[in-house]
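Q: Fold this one first, please.
A: Sequence and structure below.
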Amino acid sequence: MDHVPTSAEGVSASSEEGLADSMARGAARQGGSTFVEKSGLVMNVLLGCGVAVHGFEHGRGEGSGAWVASVFQKCKRDVRDRNYPCERPGCRHGWTVRYREPGGRRGRQWERSFPRRVGPDGADAFAVSVENDKEAGVAFDPVRGALPLSVWAREWLDGRAIAESTRRNYEGFIRKHLVPRLGQKTLAGLARRDFERFAKDVYASGAGLAASTVNDRMVMVAAMLEAAVVDKRIPDNPARGVRISRARPLAVDEDEIPTPGEVDLIAKHIAPQYRLTVYLQSGTGLRPSEALAFSSECRRTGFVRIRWQVSAKAHRADCRTAFVPCKNRVEGEYRDVPTAPFIDQEIDAHLARWAPVPVVFTGRKGKRRRLEVFFAPRQRGKGAMPTASIYGYHFKKACRLAGLVDADGKAKYTPRSLRHFFASIALAHGVPVHEVSRWLGHRSVKATVDIYGHLVPRAWRRCREVLQNAMRPVPLDTGIQPEEAASPGSCIQAA
């Protein structure tokens, strides 16, 4: 056996062989998992000392007849390797796992390369996984793992018994995101870091997918790879449990908030049946899907009560639940939002032209419900409800007709801009942030502060007066203006 020259001259090749034989003889007594873990530990010690652990490859478990996997660097052993001979103990050249299928000498020998030795995606972890699979009686064919992910994704999806709408969603995600990024890689060549990077890249790509949507699609990808494990194409599932954390809400850009005059322009140019939605959003802060679900039961004296939003699947013929609870809410919960008189005037004008349309649907608890909705289609409807995406089309068209476009000729605003308008106007005129947060339906006040906190006018002088009156009740007249008190931590920011 070859001996790599290092400072660890006390470890000889003969002792190496004896140690490997000893580990092999202990396999039957200690059990496969314990044996592999201990032998892998000793192997790492030998590798750290610079010893080429050939003997570890030739150890045999007496109970299973399986030849133990070998972890090594070809730069130190294989004369055909372009980096041979490499005499640096801590070099960054790749690592190779050489292993046999169950069956001892008769089992086929395979190799797999890794960029690193340690870690969950390293060579050591794979070697231990291979030996554990042998002891557990699990066998997989590396040739079957050479199938490209793009091919396996198609086979997997074709074999699923799922709803047609779900199939279209999966097909779109696979075609637009999975195949372009990972489709050419083989099943056996995929590592966990590939899917972690993939999920992160998809979310950051600007494709408009929320963190929850990306995580939902990663569950689908994990199921796809789990099927490959069951089919004995790969030993484990590298996509299992891969998720991305929800990003902190970004502060709204003031340039993304329309002026009152621009709100009126959008309402003037949008399709007449959607005029009311523009004022419901800008006047009460509703989400687009909540405005489209507006019904007779929502209108109260001086306020509106919001319980439902239109489902994203409401336009489909097979959709049985056109309405779902509002975001961050469960069925039965609601929020009340005060209304200005102009909102009541717009509602009356809408009802004078279009009568509410009754829609019956089944709630998530199985109870049949009936709503008299304001925005059900009346000419081409066939019972289907307009969704946020359909409304978004009409909204962007209205922006273009009104001349509210950017340098590329695209709509300057989105329906969400009207919700920003409501929040910014309320906060700029002293409405408490916790009230605005509740009306917007945010999960917490923190989300409201993160998004809109910078729009709140600075209250330095008011803060100084309140504290002065509490401690020393005398008139405060120092001549210092708010803009002169250049303190980075104003009271409203601390709140």
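Q: Good. Now the second chain.
A: Here it is, same layout.
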Amino acid sequence: MVTTATGIPAWRIHHSRLIRFDGVTLPFQQKMTENEWGMSVVERIWDRLTAFDSATVGAAQLVYKAHLRTYSVEKLRELIALGGPAYEALLKNIDLIRQFQSNEGMTLMDSRDKFETHQYSFSGLDDILSQFAEQISGAVGIPLVRLFGQSPKGFSTAMQTLPTITTG
């Protein structure tokens, strides 16, 4: 076999060393543009896979940052503007607070300072992630039950499961 397509060098390749996977069938003109190759199976789902990955990372970051701690310091702007030893002492104080909060769960501060925590609650994250998972499932053509190993949901799914291929 001698390759003669545009952009591919003419090499002799023995037929026993080549397996051709055409991929997804393309329209004629696009197939000619792709040197008679089909579209990659991975290419079809790449944008859905990237969106799913971004959604899961974003959801994880939201959950991880679901609390806000505020520390009010009297005359903070003046301390920052002046800089020097007072500013360094403030930074050292904040470092010690952070250390004691992680080690001992304590917050040490001046009586005039104020420390507050605020919690966020999220609803609907599981629905959003499920929608992205369904988009991947649709793009690949594999049911969610098999692709993600989820049990079937909805009506008349109590005793139904898809057959699973097992190797032993």
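Q: Anything worth noting on the second one?
A: Helices lie at 28-33, 41-64, 76-82, 84-103, 125-140, 144-147.
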